[in-house]
């Protein structure tokens, strides 16, 4: 069995609307988990680990797309205890997830359901496949299976993503690479704070 409990605290940043950030900081509202079928790490509340600038850029992108979710881009900081974590930066965990994939595939075939595919989104770089339908489905299946068969409930899922154009010709360092955390158990977030605007290129 892969290591699951990480007694480690990380700092994460959540891109959102300024009004929502203020209400969360005031204790008037809670962040709700995302459950889109294309979420990179399955269901959860998403944070960029040590990435306030990337969180702010995401909020700006959301405001430009429709303005329904974000009108005034802002960043909410959080201190997160990883707890029982499916940490995909740990090779022991990625090996386990690979095995769970084959169980997922057998399940889908037995039920005659087409396998989900990761896809590019309109207006994004070809090949980034930011709509992670397959990854999301496999992670949610794997975490659900472990909870059912082993009684282990993952509180967080953590992964690294290579995204964007190479930072220079021939490089494998991508401009929008980042680490994200999907918090499944809200109690893992033990403190919210408002980061300094200078840390993410905002005028405040």
How does this model look, in words?
With 204 residues, the protein is an alpha+beta fold. The protein has one domain (5-196). 29% of the residues lie in helices and 26% in strands. The chain contains four helices and eight strands. It has helices at residues 18-25, 52-65, 91-110, 133-150, and strands spanning 5-17, 45-49, 73-87, 118-119, 131-132, 156-161, 178-183, 189-193. The strands form two sheets. Strands 1-2-7-6-3 form a five-stranded mixed beta barrel. The model has no long low-confidence stretch (mean pLDDT 93).
Sequence-ordered SSE layout with sheet pairings:
Layout: E1 5-17, H1 18-25, E2 45-49, H2 52-65, E3 73-87, H3 91-110, E4 118-119, E5 131-132, H4 133-150, E6 156-161, E7 178-183, E8 189-193
Helix pairs in contact: 3-4
Q: What keyword list fits this structure?
A:
26% strand; alpha+beta; 29% helix; 204 residues; 5-stranded mixed β-barrel; 4 helices; two-stranded antiparallel ribbon
Radius of gyration: 17 Å
> What general outline do the C-alpha atoms trace?
globular
Major sheet, described briefly? 5 strands, mixed, barrel
- Identify the strand order in the major beta sheet: 1-2-7-6-3
Mean pLDDT metric? 93
Helix content: 25-40%
**Secondary-structure element pattern, one letter each:** EHEHEHEEHEEE
Number of domains: 1
Task: Indicate the proportion of strand residues.
Answer: 25-35%
Tell me the distance between the termini. 46 Å
Helix segment count? Answer: 4
Structural class category = alpha+beta
Q: What is the count of β-strands?
A: 8
Pick out the low-confidence regions.
none
């Amino acid at each position: 069995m892969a290591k699951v409990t990480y007694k480690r605290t990380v700092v994460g940043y959540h891109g959102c609307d300024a009004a929502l950030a203020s209400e969360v900081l005031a204790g008037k509202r809670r962040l709700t988990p995302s459950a889109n079928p294309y979420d990179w790490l399955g269901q959860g509340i998403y944070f960029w680990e040590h990435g306030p600038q990337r969180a702010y850029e995401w909020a700006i992108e959301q405001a430009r797309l429709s303005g329904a979710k974000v009108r005034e881009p802002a960043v909410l900081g959080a201190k997160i205890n990883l707890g029982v974590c499916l940490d995909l930066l740990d090779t022991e965990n990625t090996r386990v997830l690979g095995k769970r994939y084959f169980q997922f595939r057998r399940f889908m075939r037995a039920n005659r359901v087409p396998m989900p595919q990761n896809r590019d989104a309109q207006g994004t770089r070809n090949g980034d496949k930011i709509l992670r339908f397959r990854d999301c489905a496999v992670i949610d299946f794997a975490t659900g299976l472990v909870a059912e068969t082993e009684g282990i409930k993952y509180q967080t899922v953590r992964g690294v993503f290579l995204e964007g154009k190479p930072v220079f010709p021939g490089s494998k360092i991508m401009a929008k690479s980042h680490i994200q955390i999907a918090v499944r158990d809200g109690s893992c977030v033990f403190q919210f704070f408002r980061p300094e605007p200078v840390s993410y290129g905002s005028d405040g």
